[in-house]
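User: Let's play a game. I give you a shape written as tokens, and you guess the letters that built it. Ready? Here's round one.
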């Protein structure tokens, strides 16, 4: 009678996730809970279960729910502005601005907007602190855009007298206002709608500042 061979176990220690990979798993779990149960369903117990990790592991990453939500919003910020690598800084201006500012294709399901609305209506911290933090993020984004416009001026790609004002203008041209979705007048644009707005706004901006044309990447 032939013996049935038992499946061999892989040798070595099981693969351990990096802290960054665990954090991303938690953030995706947060989005999953919101899409199914709304903001009321977002608890540390529910997040740990959704992320398939122990509460101890979750609390090792985030001290409480407020810290988790705050760091999720910082993570989402990469959907709007992504710092360039040294290699990317060598690309032509249009390509640099696309890499820096193009909206993510990820559909967040409205969670960032819902969290921002909750922070404004019922802030976990003093209002001045909340708005100060939001303003700090916005200022950091603008500094990154201004740095690329400064680089373009230095390289002779464009002629701009005031790159800070140009950075502010570009921001309003490639991004829709969040005021209407924030107060519930209309829904936030889809990823496809955001991309159409971005492409059109960037094209008008570059034409307006007389940037040297290049083939889209």
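Assistant: Ready! My guess for every position:
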């Amino acid at each position: 009678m032939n013996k049935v061979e038992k499946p061999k176990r892989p040798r070595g220690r099981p693969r351990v996730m990096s802290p960054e990979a665990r954090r991303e798993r938690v953030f995706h779990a947060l989005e999953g809970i919101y899409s199914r149960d709304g903001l009321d369903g977002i608890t540390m117990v529910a997040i740990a279960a959704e992320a398939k990790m122990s509460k101890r592991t979750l609390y090792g990453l985030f001290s409480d729910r407020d810290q988790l939500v705050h760091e999720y919003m910082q993570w989402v910020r990469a959907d709007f502005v992504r710092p360039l690598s040294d290699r990317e800084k060598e690309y032509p201006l249009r390509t640099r601005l696309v890499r820096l500012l193009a909206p993510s294709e990820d559909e967040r399901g409205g969670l960032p907007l819902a969290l921002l609305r909750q922070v404004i209506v019922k802030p976990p911290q003093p209002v001045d602190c909340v708005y100060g933090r939001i303003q700090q993020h916005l200022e950091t984004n603008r500094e990154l855009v201004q740095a690329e416009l400064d680089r373009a001026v230095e390289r002779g790609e464009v002629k701009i007298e005031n790159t800070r004002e140009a950075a502010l203008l570009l921001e309003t041209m490639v991004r829709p206002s969040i005021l209407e979705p924030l107060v519930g007048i209309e829904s936030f644009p889809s990823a496809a709608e955001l991309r159409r707005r971005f492409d059109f706004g960037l094209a008008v901006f570059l034409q307006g500042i007389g940037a040297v044309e290049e083939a889209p990447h």
